[in-house]
Design brief:
The chain is α/β, with parallel strands linked by helices and about 375 residues long. The protein contains twelve helices and 20 strands. The strands form six sheets. The protein has a seven-stranded parallel beta sheet. Bound molecules: pyridoxal-5'-phosphate.
Length: about 375
């Protein structure tokens, strides 16, 4: 690499904030007349809470969901006006922090409701809350019959902003559980007539108008992952991951590549190595299965993904096309995240949320909400 500028020789994660804003606009259009909140938990699915949330706010988003208390506090520092829902709810001893940052807990069980109601009485104010009803995930939420049996005096200290539930199989439109959950949700929320209702996340928006209720809560679709698996991706791609070739091996005798010697090579083949590994979130399960791209040509992973490095079989390209410094696209195009996820035996959510901290990050589009 004589003379090459080291600064250019690093893996780079590009995040397109304009595409996130366009995806938000598209989801708003699909969801209409329902409103659309943005789910920005887990550091906006690994893409950076501050740039993503401020861009979404600039695009008109007023309601956000996070999971952890710390995420809510961080988001409040960024967005003073937004409604911020905390999916984790409220735990004993956390009431003051939620109150101070005007975070709205999603109450998942009667104990949380009691805790928040008691705090509301203590501060002598009605406190905003959302109520989560479990309609079939069996993960979090009030059982429907317990939600229905809530007494007015139990709810009186609270200002209910939302009743919500979550679909287990929304990315499978034909799955019978979708209609069952929708039915249970409709029944369980019948007594909360003034309170906005929310059932659909990304994929739920595409199940039809009957699933959208008053508010939709997409996360992953904002970030370019296909909410309609098996059909064309309606979302714009948001993430691109590229890395420079560090070294090219011309194979001159039968050999193998990488740990465990799992990828046999023959004379005449060429192997290129890039500085991205499982410590960067490139799943080891992608070993010998995934493909990257060089100048639009698919190049298979050769051998195991190691901690800092991954090798690629570049034999399909002419020798002069792959030299140290040549940029390889590890994630890109309209199906980039989904493709890598499928090849690694996982889902786009996991690929995104694992994207590592060692990449140089480059944001495209405005970061400033003003
Ligand atoms: C994570 C989450 C969402 C967002 O889901 P996506 O599939 O990413 O759109 C919505 N609602 C709840 C309760 C969640 O936990």
């Amino acid at each position: 690499m004589g003379g090459a500028v080291r600064g250019a020789a690093v893996a780079e994660l590009e995040i397109d904030l304009e595409a996130i804003a366009a995806n938000y606009a598209l989801l708003c259009e699909r969801a209409r007349p329902a409103a659309v909140a943005a789910v920005v938990k887990a550091d906006a699915y690994g893409l950076g809470l501050a740039p993503v949330a401020t861009r979404l706010a600039a695009a008109g988003c007023r309601r956000f969901f996070v999971a952890r208390l710390e995420e809510g506090v961080a988001l409040r520092r960024l967005l003073h006006e937004a409604e911020i829902f905390l999916l984790d709810g409220v735990g004993s001893g956390e009431e003051e922090v939620l109150f101070a940052h005007r975070l709205i807990p999603v109450l998942n069980h009667p104990g949380e409701l009691e805790l928040w109601a008691r705090y509301a009485r203590a501060v002598e104010q009605k406190l905003a809350a959302a109520l989560h009803i479990d309609t079939g995930m069996n993960r979090l939420g009030f059982a429907p019959e317990i939600a229905r049996a809530l007494m007015p005096e139990q709810l009186e200290p609270l200002a209910l902003r939302l009743v919500m539930s979550h679909l287990a199989c929304a990315e499978e439109p034909e799955h019978p559980l979708n209609a069952i959950q929708r039915e249970r949700f409709t029944l369980a929320t019948a007594g909360f007539d003034e309170v906005p209702r929310s059932l659909a996340a990304s994929s739920g928006i595409f199940l039809g108008a009957a699933y959208r209720f008053d508010l939709c809560r997409p996360g992953v679709a904002l970030y370019g992952v296909n909410p309609t698996p098996g059909r064309a991706n309606p979302m714009q791609p948001v993430v691109r991951l590229t890395a420079p070739v560090l070294q090219v091996h011309e194979i001159t005798a039968p050999a193998t590549v990488g740990y465990g010697a799992t990828y046999p090579v023959r004379p005449g083949m060429r192997v290129a190595t890039v500085p991205v590994g499982y410590a960067d979130g490139l799943l080891r399960s992608a070993s010998n299965r995934a493909t990257a791209r060089i100048a639009g040509v698919d190049v298979p992973y050769a051998g195991r993904v190691s901690m800092d490095l991954t090798s690629l079989d570049v034999s399909a390209l002419p020798g002069e096309a792959v030299v140290p410094g040549t940029r390889v696209e590890l994630i890109g195009g309209s199906d980039g995240v989904d493709r890598l996820a499928q090849q690694a035996g996982t889902i786009g959510y996991e690929v995104l949320t694992r994207l590592g901290r060692r990449f140089r990050r480059r944001y495209h589009g405005t970061r400033d909400p003003s």
